[in-house]
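Support reply, case 0932

Customer input (verbatim):
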Amino acid sequence: MKKTILTLLILSIISLATSTFAVEFSADVISQLPTGKDTGKLYYKNEDISRNEIMDMISIMKRPLMYQIFPVTKKYYVSNISDLEKKNAMAGAGDFKSWIKKNKMKKVGKETIAGYKCIIYEGNIKSQNAQFSPHMKLWLSKKLNYPIKSEVTLPAPMGKITTSLDNIVIDKQPKSLFSIPVGYVEAETMQEAMGIPDMGSLMKGFGTEDNNSPAGNQMPSPENMEKMMEQMQEMMKNMQQNQ
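Our regenerated output:
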């Protein structure tokens, strides 16, 4: 559960495209998580099409859809980006200048990272149905029109996530990178695609619903969240060992 939440948040962060004039490029994605360091890959074609590989999941954005692909199960789940944005304002932002203005982020400085001059923005990010508003700091490259680095502070027990790009290569990206791999099957739910039990049932088992709320609508206590995360991590570990 913990790995799943962090994965989706990271993918949302590194999917912040900005301008119709952005160049095509690839880059290594380095994520510093509360649980440790993780590395992945980003392939960026334009503001509507990109691919992220991080924490055993491939995410392909082809606006207005997001394809979340899981090599472990050879399944994928399709989401509408507009639906994702209702729960997570960081998901699939297109016009970054408007996105900054909408979230009332402020320009707080400048810095050069990985050889790219960046403008730093900071503020709290809000979305329609989110249960909390994470604090975010972005280093936006003018040349790439893409964040070179970001910091997101989340409620306990998740903590801070720092994501940065390295080994950036400006070049045309093959169309084949943005297609579903041959042999993969579309799943009806994200849980099915990941190969894990229904989250509503799992959260119910940890006392996260009441008589008036559907399963999964209430935020679990910090203690139950930690137990859920430990259980999901063990399940993911077992799945990887059985590949």
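We compared this against your earlier run and they match. Two observations from our side: The domain at 2-190 is CATH 2.50.20.10 (outer membrane lipoprotein receptor (LolB), chain A). The radius of gyration is 18 Å. Please reopen the case if you see a mismatch on your end.
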